[in-house]
Amino acid sequence: MGGRWAGRGRWAKLKVSAFVRKRYAKLAGRYGDTGAKAILGATILLIPAPVPGTTLIPVALAEIILRLRRMTGKAAGPSDEVIQREARRLLADLYAHLGEDPPC
What we know:
- The protein has one domain.
- Helices cover 76% and strands 0% of the residues.
- The chain contains four helices and no strands.
């Protein structure tokens, strides 16, 4: 029985890793490396937290980064609605990929 499940861990790791790389590339194209790291990192860290409202944290981090960009005179980046929509979509995709329902 152990031999049957031996390769599953590696397979799951490769699938999740490919999924995260693909989503990160999309996020980096839209929000830059810093914004993508903030959204993706917070989302991954908050997946196991069954606390309502945790899906807002990645959006808040992306918003902070955009506000800092605006204050420092760098390119404004996407609108607030785009950031929120993409963060929600990323969370939905991650939960769907893992076969779980989102906490909210």
